[in-house]
Q: What sequence folds into this?
């Protein structure tokens, strides 16, 4: 159980934070002043949550005294500048009061996870064991809501022989999902045959899938079994099925409808018992409407549809996945255990990962190779990450050059841009090209908190936003 110190002079807020954390099974100690906090042995805490301004001084004084213990700053003064200053002094993050309870709980969970991964390699190894126990789906790691829903669907569909269509961007791990279904099915003892339809030349794909007889075409010097037949009794996984030529689609449809194949050059059909799992990053329904994919095959494939979310939509999963990959890479290269620095973990969280899990794996493996010691800093991850995760160039220039800022909500303020003013500015500037999920992620809050702040500040969602 993680032990958290709460430093807050307002009794109502202090008690509210304590009860919230205790509901999430944290061990909580609370004090009402900076002096009282200084009398504590700060090293025994896993996290310190402190108000920015306290009787006796600033909460940021605890950053130096806390050593490796992360400090989360709360501020009711809604000053972007003071919050940023706190981050520069070493605070791990800040949260504005009044805060959303879900927002606070998520921030605490994230910070504690990052701290365990970055400062305690032994604890990190234990965490990986916990992760493997919690997610026994062929090594798939995930605790975000979309992944939990996916696990639930896998458990329901795996014992059946229903055909499954897995949808997701390239690099999201669609083959892992297919293997998870196979391992939990009655066919687990039989083989799973994986085929990348995009990697086989169009002239050879029918022969590869369905086999051929001797002399069926030039170069066919012997009879050959196809991959569909090789999967008899087991599972056939067809990745990138949208790349399958129309003629091969017709043959595959016969497999699904009649449960039989006919080798190229043969006049006889053969019965096969195969469970088909297909995957694609393309929109098969749109392709069918354009005549690029057989509509009858699409409906045969789409008995059960599984959506695999991109890595950028999986929240804190990315940190857990990166940690598991780091352990695996070290074992593979026979190196001593390594850990990410706090700035590396921040970079991993902030980056959008357009190449998804595959890109993350490459970045981690490259970093392990380039590391000088057992620490992985952000600089060797090789990802293009802006030094400022929130503020666009136009906003940055506005903050630097403007002496007075007239906020959308009314009053003028000298010098500081309030967090509410910044929120309004950021949302109005970006809502035309970002979804609500993207806006919430960039602001570091939940979608619920984004909606509540929109209502409070009088900036309702535009029609058509997601």
A:
């Amino acid at each position: 159980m993680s032990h958290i110190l709460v430093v807050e002079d307002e009794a109502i807020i202090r008690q509210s934070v304590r009860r919230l954390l205790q509901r999430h099974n944290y061990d909580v100690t609370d004090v009402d002043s900076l002096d009282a906090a200084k009398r504590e042995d700060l090293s025994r805490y896993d996290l310190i949550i402190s108000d920015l301004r306290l009787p006796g001084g600033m909460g940021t004084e605890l950053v130096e005294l806390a050593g490796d213990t992360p400090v989360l700053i709360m501020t009711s003064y809604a000053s972007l500048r003071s919050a940023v200053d706190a981050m520069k002094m070493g605070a791990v993050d800040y949260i504005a009061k009044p805060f959303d309870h879900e927002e606070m709980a998520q921030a605490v969970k994230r910070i504690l996870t990052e701290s365990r991964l970055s400062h305690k390699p032994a604890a990190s190894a234990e965490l990986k064991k916990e992760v493997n126990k919690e997610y026994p789906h062929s090594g798939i790691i995930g605790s975000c809501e979309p992944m939990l829903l996916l696990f639930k669907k896998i458990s329901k569909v795996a014992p059946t022989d229903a055909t499954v269509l897995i949808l997701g961007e390239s690099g999201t791990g669609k083959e892992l999902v297919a293997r998870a279904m196979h391992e939990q099915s009655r066919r687990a003892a039989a083989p799973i045959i994986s085929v990348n339809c995009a990697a086989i030349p169009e002239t050879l794909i029918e022969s590869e899938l369905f086999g051929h007889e001797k002399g069926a075409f030039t170069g066919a010097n012997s009879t050959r079994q196809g991959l569909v037949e090789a999967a008899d009794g087991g599972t056939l996984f067809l990745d990138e099925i949208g790349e399958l030529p129309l003629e091969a689609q017709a043959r595959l449809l016969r497999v699904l409808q009649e449960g039989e194949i006919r080798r190229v050059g043969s006049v006889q059909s053969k019965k096969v018992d195969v469970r088909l799992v297909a995957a694609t990053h393309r929109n098969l329904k749109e392709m069918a409407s354009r005549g690029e994919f057989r509509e009858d095959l699409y409906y045969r494939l789409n008995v059960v549809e599984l959506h695999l979310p991109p890595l950028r939509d999986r929240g804190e999963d990315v940190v857990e996945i990166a940690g598991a990959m780091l352990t695996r890479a070290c074992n593979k290269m026979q190196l001593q255990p390594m850990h990410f620095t706090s700035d590396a973990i921040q970079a991993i969280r902030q980056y959008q990962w357009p190449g998804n899990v595959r890109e993350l794996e490459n970045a981690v493996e490259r970093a392990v190779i380039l590391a000088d010691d057992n620490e992985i800093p952000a600089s060797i991850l090789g990802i293009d990450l802006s030094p400022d995760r929130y503020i666009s160039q136009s906003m940055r220039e506005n903050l630097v050059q403007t002496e007075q800022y007239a906020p959308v909500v009314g009053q003028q303020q000298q010098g500081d841009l309030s967090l509410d003013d910044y929120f309004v500015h950021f949302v109005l500037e970006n809502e035309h090209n970002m979804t609500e999920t993207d806006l919430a992620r960039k602001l570091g809050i939940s979608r619920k908190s984004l909606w509540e702040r929109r209502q409070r500040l009088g900036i309702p969602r535009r029609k058509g936003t997601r």
User: Anything to note?
Assistant: The first strand starts at residue 3 and ends at 7. The two ends are 37 Å apart (CA to CA). The CA atoms of residues 344 and 377 lie 5 Å apart. The chain is about 45% helix and 15% strand.
